[in-house]
Amino acid sequence: MSVPDYMQCAEDHQTVLVVVQPVGIVPEDQFFRIYKRIASVAQVSIRDSQRNLYIRYRHHYLPENNDWGDFQTHRKVVGLICVTTCGSGKEWPQTSERFHGQKEVFGATLYDSRLLVFGLQGEIAEQQRTDVAFYPSYDDCPDVEKKVEDFVESIFIVLESKRLDRATDKSGDKIPLLCVPFEKKDFVGLDTDSRHYKKRCQGRMRKHVGDLCLQAGMLQDALVHYHMAVELLRSVNDFLWLGAALEGLCSASVIFHYPGGTAGKAAGRNPSAAQGQAADAGKRHRPGAQEVLIDPGALTTNGISADTSSEIGRAKNCLSPEDIIEKYKEAISYYGKYKNAGVIELEACVKAVRVLAIQKRAMEASEFLQNAVYINLGQLSEEEKIQRYSILSELYYLIGFHRKSAFFKRVAAMQCVAPTIPEPGWRACYKLLLETLPGYSLSLDPKDFSKGAHRGWAAVQMRLLHELVYASRRMGNPGLSVRHLSFLLQTMLDFLSDQEKKEVTQSLENYTSKCPGGMEVITLPDGLRLHPVPFTKLPIVRSVKLLDLPVSLRPHKQKGLMENSMSTKSPFIYSPIIMHNRGEERNKKIDFQWVQGDVCEVQLMVYNPMPFELRVENMGLLTSGVEFESLPAALSLPAESGLYPVTLVGVPRTAGNITVNGYHTSVFGVTSDCLLDSLTSVRTSGCLVEVIPSLPRLQLSTSLPRSAHPLQPSKEELSSSVSVQLFNGETQQLTITLENIGSEDLETLEITSKISNTKERLFGEFLSWRPGGGCLTPASEARPVWSPSLSTSSQTGLLWRREPAPGPDDDGISVTGLPISSPLRQVLKPRAETRPPGSESSKTDYNHVKMLEAVMTFKYSGGAGKVEGYYRDLTLGLHVDVEPSVFFTRVSTLPATSTRQCHLLLDVFNSTEHELTVSAQNNQDLVLHASECQRMAIQVDKFDFDTLPQPDQETVRYTSLKLLEEERLHAQASMINSTLGITWDIPSVRRKGEASVEGVLNQLVLDHLQLAPLQWDVMVNGKPCDCDIIADCKVGDAVPLEVKLTNRSKNTVGPFALTVVPFQDYQNGVQNYDLQDAVTFIGSNTFYIDTVNPSEESLCLGALLFLYSGDFYLNIKFQDDSVGKEPGAGQGKELPLSWFGLPSIHIRAQEAPMEAGA
Amino acid sequence: MAVCIAVIAKENYPLYIRSVPTQNELKFHYTVHTSLDVVEEKISAVGKAMADQRELYLGLLYPTEDYKVYGYVTNSKMFRKLHNSFTDVMCNPFYNPGDTIQSKAFDGMVSVMMVQAS
């Protein structure tokens, strides 16, 4: 006996063994169908004895094992059922022959046999035979079970008779010596008459009877017999049989204690070894079966006693659970003395372990198993080895030693593919390896590893995964290999050495070249589902941040529609609790919008944990909510890189709320979908963002180069900015071209500008607008400062360029404000005022470069986004560095000969490094070298500032007095400026500009420049007379003198008294006022002018008579009478002297020609 | 002397494992791993009865052909040394309970206890 039956358990001792075998040609599936039906009859209740007979069926049994039938009767084949197919009557004799042949094999031990014939009909089938049953086909055999039951009953009759036969002949008859096969030769020539021998015979027979009793369902009898056998055999040191008797005792006790059986569910795990047996394991024992017990006192009789006294005997004979184990140990130690009883010992160990498992005594069970491991059964075939390791694994599992179980299972798996096996069973190996996973606390679902750091027996687990990879590859399933290898890489990354990382990735790449890894769930034939392994660690993503659109493309909500979006759920204006609610962060809506059709960006901070360069291909975003076109990126991360920013882009194709769920990658040929929900280590500030309908997109380009440095006050983000360097007073043209590069039509465009740094006071306009293109209208700038070439047709043609919008027709554009298609031309006129502090010493200040900044905003909208109330801003920052050009360090006036004019004296300072030409209107050019200061005089007509528009009442009310004053000064200055028209020109650098006197003017100068409100006109001889005009008159003629006063002031003036004083100027500094002889007045030399109301005139008339020829001058002296006489009538204060600037009159008196007089 | 010393965490994963014949480390991993079954069994069995006065000596856990695996022993000097060293590791404020032991002092102690590989 060399092949152990690992599935044996203690209660098998009470079964009878029936072999079911096919005879002739029987289809395997049909045979097993019949076999199953036969095997379902595992327990038969004997009609009139209340006893049960248990049957163990085998379809394969070694006759060699049958030889041990005397030793333990459950090993003896007592029944044979043959199944055969018989097509016709002709075949019948042959079939019958075979059946008999089969009977011969087990002949010695068989109690009875049956033949089931399928397919035979007719005459032969009609005959009534007890040992043969005929069925027309495998499908038409309704009473197979019945037949088997009958057969079992017949076996029982034989068994019962044998039992009675053996049990009763305890008289002096010679008892035969039962022995096991290997003993037979030992007993040759032994003295059969010795007491020792007799006792041995008795003991063995007693044990045998015990077996029979147990089989026949008489548990109590069996116990008694076993006890007696133990006593007898112990006395003669017949250890092998003593062991068997002890084991019998244990078996009977186990059956008594554990009616549920000890095989447990584990029996079902080995389908090949115990088909049939497993299915019926549960049915085998009916509760209360052992109640049918016989009183030990009634042993010899065949009666059945229902006497309650039997209870006492039962308790006495039956072993306690602890004793069972003791006896098993003893029995096994006896078996161990015999080398040939290895199988018996092994099986006993297995049985004991099963019992211990039920008793939950794992430690002792493990000792039994440990012993079983060392039992040497000689040369085992590879298959037997696998079976042995598998069963050890199962038994360890049974007692809760999962690691040990896994260890043996793995050994079994390795045995399947041992190098000595010609055809390695990789499939079986793989299957067994999968079964070891729980023992190594390894789950193949990567989700179980996502929580925190991996903790486990990494070395062992890694080895197992490597073996799985290898086995699946050898199985010819590269998909599985890829999956396992991915899993290994993902979960064991922290435990792999750099070298291993390299090796694993290399082999992964090898596998994926044949079979790319994906995200689908692999389902194995046995139902195990292998979840996809996303490479969340290759690369490791630390943070995910959705990026706002660039400033120029950010959509804004129209103010009027703001209320809808502003509404907050909470009634509180501020709550700190909401701020700290981190849990909802991922689902929080980000407070910016993306625009349909525009490229949106998400920034990931990634990290490569590998010691080599990591190539990530096809990295893109996973989104939901909105149709999103992801534009995958490929990146290459250097070895063990630090945090590395990666920007993933995509275009939302529809509007709505979009959620970024994760990203997908392709690394080493494995594509992974990494969801952010399962990545706890990823920081994110929210993944939900609103996508608004599409808007047009404008691109701005300017004629000036872009500035590298942003504007100083960076409170606003600008889409672009330009910078330019200008001299003070210089004008620069800037052409801005707007192009619609989006897919939507532009419907509205609004332009505003703002000067951002207001610390410095500005004089004059900094920015002025002039829309360019076809409808070019002159801007507020009066003088055309632009070179004509800028507005030539070629330039205009360029500006007219218009991007074809790939949408519907452009005709439907409604224009507000400015025509869309016309590019705009902007005029820049910086006049940063560097107000001179008045002293020449602070000249260095003039070299200081001033900065001017302005922001222009283009607000535009169109398309579906406009309907929703969104618009976009395009901002252009202007940065101007203003360098000083020319300054007027001092201004003064000199009266001109005419009272209506004066001379303006300007000290001009050239603060540039170039030679500079200054020119004023109607004046000669003045050439100034660098840092040179020269005076220039300009004769100007006096100004009538009253013609300047007065600020309206509203403005006056709300503006401070000082501001009003400044405004007035500014208006006056610009008037002077425009009249003077002072320009400068630097020929060397071809720059020119204007110079302004504003800021250097003081009140005194202004007063001098102002036209007096009282206008005096003097007429001599009816001709107006002014400074340089010489009035001619004749000696002796009365010369009429007319003085006219026009009051242009707002108040009533006068009354005044004017005295005309004639004098002669000798041109040598001497003035002769003593002219009574030369000039005489006709009438008074004093005029009196009454009060003159505003805008009225008053005229005084007088006459002079020149007595001699000569040049005379008239000085009109003036007295203001109003103050003294009527204080209330005038202004209440003295009128300024300059108001009374009467011209001095030059009269040349000549002798009248005689002819004329005659 | 010992050929392999392992400190196992409560959740049955190794905090520290080191063996002298380095070429066949995996074998020791397997040996220690499987003997955990016994430790688990012993602890759970004793725990039911008398959780307080549990004897820390688990004795022989598992004999293999070549080696014998012993559980935690406090009444031998060897294990006391290990225990003290382990206590030191645990007292380190920078040690995060549950992490793999990387202490040099502990490593040194283990080296002393090991068989000198010839």
In short:
The complex is a heterodimer of chains A (1158) and B (118). Chain A has 27 helices and 46 strands.
Report on the architecture of this protein:
The complex is a heterodimer of chains A (1158) and B (118). Chain A is of the alpha+beta class and 1158 residues long. Helices cover 28% and strands 26% of the residues of chain A. In chain A, the strands form ten sheets. In chain A, strands 2-3-1-4-5-6 form a six-stranded mixed beta sheet. In chain A, strands 11, 13, 15, 17, 18 and 20 form a six-stranded mixed beta sheet that branches. The N and C termini of chain A lie far apart (187 Å). Chain B is α+β, with helices and mostly antiparallel strands. The two termini of chain B are 13 Å apart. Chain B has helices at residues 25-49, 77-91, 104-113; strands spanning 4-8, 14-19, 60-63, 68-70. The model of chain B has no long low-confidence stretch (mean pLDDT 74). The chains are: A alpha+beta (1158), B alpha+beta (118). The interface between A and B is medium-sized, with 19 and 20 residues.
